[in-house]
Amino acid sequence: MKNLPYDIKGFDHCELYVSNAKQTAHYYRTTMGFQPVAYRGLETGNRDSVSYVLNQDRINLVITSPLEKNTKIGAHIDRHGDGMKDVAFTVDDSEAAWKTSLERGAKSAMEPKEIKDENGEAVVSAIETFGDTIHTFVERKNYKGSFLPGFETNDLGVKSESTGLVHIDHVVGNQPDGEMQSVCDFYEKVFGWHRFWSVDDKDINTKYSSLRSIVMANDNEIVKMPINEPADGLRKSQIQEYIDYYETGGVQHLALSTRDIISTVRTMRANGVDFLPTPKSYYDTLRDWIGPIDEDIETLAELGILVDVDENGYMLQIFTQPLQDRPTLFFEVIQRKGSNSFGKGNFKALFESIEREQEKRGNL
């Protein structure tokens, strides 16, 4: 199934549908260091929606809100709350990507269209994936503007302080129980992706809850999408809590890579980002199984950063609290030092931390 007549170069951008784009953009700018780079709204002649494009290094987020009632954007927010609509890929041929996907069984979300402005032209198309999420194929080799035609370059007159985030490491999709495999099959069939890593409920469980997860990756392994589903436990898992509040499969979290997680997390904490707490007991035995690492364990404990190790090295990670009032979308900050794993050794500590938060919400 490889031999695609087009190339997926990597993640292009992620678009969030939110009820108040202006305030959401302000939050990502001031707490996480994203710089406004482009804008589309009433002032640019767009009457039905407003979008702010935020950038940090190779990460682009598009924050979109409706400007009228009874819109598709509004219906998405009404059903899911603030959430991620689009995980877009940069491709060399948008039309071929769309056509091939449809031939392989995908449903169209947007037919290929050429969009132009004074900075050149781009081609965009999109297909449906799990839940109400879509993948847009962005071909912009003939475009020189700050984002895409229709957006004006606009930094909103502000200069953000970067927190050191570099690129999207992976994007995680939660599925209702029993649907993980069919979603993974979709990525294999439509894109020719392969299984990169997986765990099941024997690997990842606590006294109360467990999950199954398969990580799908494209051929150059730049794009990775872990696909989760809940497994039966004594109580409700955080995956099931997500499904209950989001109502369908959807993007659970966005993992953003940094070259210095201690500095990034320190800055983000000082800026007001709430991270999931890690119990101090996690660090009591960390030295016993992690082996030598460059970072000071006391510093990691102070910040709540988790560590995991595999045969290729180690990785450090931490998760934010949900970024909206429903317990749905959150972010991960990750630094890889050789390891390509997804923190299997940390899932128990992470789950127990999330379970404590679920208990506060009355959802365990």
Tell me about this structure.
The protein has 364 residues and is an alpha+beta fold. The chain folds into two domains: 8-153, 2,3-Dihydroxybiphenyl 1,2-Dioxygenase, domain 1 (Roll); 165-361, 2,3-Dihydroxybiphenyl 1,2-Dioxygenase, domain 1 (Roll), CATH 3.10.180.10. The longest helix is centred in the last third of the chain and has 15 residues, at 347-361. It contains ten helices and 17 strands. The protein has a nine-stranded mixed beta sheet with strand order 6-7-8-5-1-4-3-2-9. Strand 12 (210-217) and strand 13 (224-231) form a beta hairpin.
CATH H-tier superfamily of the largest domain:
2,3-Dihydroxybiphenyl 1,2-Dioxygenase, domain 1
Architecture of the largest domain, CATH level 2?
A: Roll
Count of alpha/pi helices: 10
Rg of Cα set? 20 Å
Q: What is the N-to-C succession of helices and strands?
A: EHEEEHEHEEEEEHEEEHEHHHHEEEH
User: Structural class of the secondary elements?
Assistant: alpha+beta
Helicity, in percent? 25-40%
What is the CATH class designation of the largest domain? Alpha Beta
- The gross shape turns out to be globular
| Overall average residue pLDDT | 92
- CATH fold descriptor of the largest domain: 2,3-Dihydroxybiphenyl 1,2-Dioxygenase, domain 1
Q: Which stretches are poorly predicted, pLDDT < 50 over at least 5 residues?
A: none
Count of the separate structural domains? 2
Q: Main beta sheet, described?
A: 9 strands, mixed
**What strand line-up does the widest sheet have?**
6-7-8-5-1-4-3-2-9
Query: Number of DSSP strands?
Result: 17
Q: Distance between termini?
A: 41 Å
Tell me the β content.
35-45%
